[in-house]
# Entry
Amino acid sequence: MFQSFDTVNDKSRGPVRLAALREELASRGLDGFLVPRADAHQGEYVPDSDCRLEWLTGFTGSAGIAGVLSDKAAIFIDGRYTIQVRDQVDEEAFAYRHLIDEPLTDWLRENAQEGQKIGYDPMLHPVRQVRSLKAACKKAGAELVAVDGNPVDAVWNDRPAAPLGAVNMHPMQFAGESAADKIKRIGELIAEKEADTALLTQPDSIAWLLNIRGSDVMHTPLPLSFALVPTKGKPSLFIDGRKLSNEVRDELSSLADIDEPGGLAPALKALGTDGKRVLIDTGLAGQALYDAVADNGGHVVEGQEPTLLPKAIKNQAEIEGTKAAHLRDGVAYARFLAWFEKTAPLGGLTEVVVAEKLEEFRRETGALKDISFDTISAAGPHGAICHYRVSYDSNLPIELNSVYLIDSGAQYEDGTTDITRTLAVGAVTAEQCKHFTLVLKGHIAIATARFPVGTTGSQLDTLARIDLWKQGLDFDHGTGHGVGSYLGVHEGPQRIAKAPNSIVLKPGMILSNEPGYYRADEYGIRIENLELVTPAAAIEGGDQKMLGFEPLTLAPIDLRMVDTKLLSEFELNWLNAYHARVRELVGPLLDDETKAWLEEATRPVS
# Structure
């Protein structure tokens, strides 16, 4: 299994570990310390050796930070984790705060004392974050100070070793553009920013640029590394050489100068000493890397990593690859759904069993490299926990007459998938069908949107929520995230969310479309497809160039939960057309029994 169901946290350890950390802080003359859920690359997945927040608090979510003072501590999480944090973190040790509504900066202003020194690890906090934290501490009369050596590591006696996943070259048939051409293209973008060199801290940016993949973190084929890319000439790649076979090293050496990670700081200092202009993304790069340039006489050009937008706009080979991956995944998913509909009402299934079975169907494609994230297999009340992680301890049975939510994805060498379906097990209530249909209306609104060139995802977000809002309902997560090409299942810079986003949507971008509704302690509903941004046909009488979405995901939406009376004729037509497309593409690749099931599951409704 690519997924473990072992319980990885024990909230009872939090107070003991917090006490040990405070003792270490006191020995260093520090009055507090900040512990982010981050490594030096700010990635969604961090290696076990960098799971400091999880080790200290027990929290396993993908976003969060803890603030520790000598007499109090708090953990800050977003709306996806408001239920999960209560299950995983000792409230007596850490107060619960909302990352957005009750941010760490407010907490520091309220709780830090005059003259106190609050420590932070300058490799783990991006420059932009450090600036706001410093301002908050200053307002309280305290000082935010960089530490040399993370104090959590000093008390983490059984800290795992750093990963050494093997690096592989990503074939041209899937990459669609040579690394040499990408390097030249990115160099030109750096020059446009009037910089000499760009610092890349995101491993997926480096993987895309050099056409390499790795296995240093869960579910995303990343080689942890840094890079410096000049306007002309070879980039410098800073990576643990033990990850490179002789063959890979030879091929990479033709593209980049290879050095160990410890060579990055001296290289940045040398650029500073030479007075070079270095492009640094202050929302991603650690403060220590910025300081290595600025404190040695260099000039930092602040701007987005130059690879982010080119990586987000998929080329034709990547688009063809992701379509092939989604068709393959659609066949596996149809087999899974047919099995689930037949088996679940009989009893005996659990969240773990279902997650294992779905992975089994994907493995049987013969092409599965990994799952793209831990499957969210959520029965009944667990469905209300947006990012629920099933374990053997939390494992619930799939009960008759209930709602079941499963959010999952796969990593294939030609593409990355991500799909959520909410399924009826036996009879469901009229209220559950109403909520499901309201979510479906939001999903259809995004799927059918036509929008002018220059539109951002935040301008579309309301479409997914308006029917929920009319009923006094909402969901506390983004509507859509970008998706990589055999890279991260959550990939920026584009997204669809309430928060303002200046990134305009462009043809070739892939985003998820996943509105939801969650009733605490009862059930959760989410419907998710991946969508490809495409040019749209001109609208008669219009004068704007328009864009739209093409669905990539190919799987039935559970008609047993659709209240057709709540759908307009336009929405019914979309649902029937989507299901007809699933039948047309997936049906011929199924065995007779599953094909018959699919015909029924995608029947036209009115």
Observations:
- The mean pLDDT is 97.
- Residues 316-343 form the longest helix (28 residues).
- The CA atoms of residues 8 and 58 lie 8 Å apart.
